[in-house]
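WARN retry 2 of 3 for item q-0093 after timeout on previous attempt; input resubmitted unchanged.
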Amino acid sequence: MMDSISMYCKDHFLIIENSFMLEKIDIKSFDDIIISHEFPTRKYKFYLFFTQPVQYEPSKGWINRIICSIFSHNNNPYEIKRAYYD
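OK item q-0093 returned
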């Protein structure tokens, strides 16, 4: 099952939303963005760096609160690193 991700702007924040949580990023806090592509594997990497921490908000449900809590405590709040396959 593929997790759908939606991104939109609201109240000067970039919101990245999936089925478990929201990631709120202040638009003014973007410091650096690095995008890379690994040929021939069709893998794309996105590194986003910020001057203010990312705010994590869980979706409804106690399982989502646990996942969000674990995710926010195990990651650097000033960066987002993601990899996607085409």
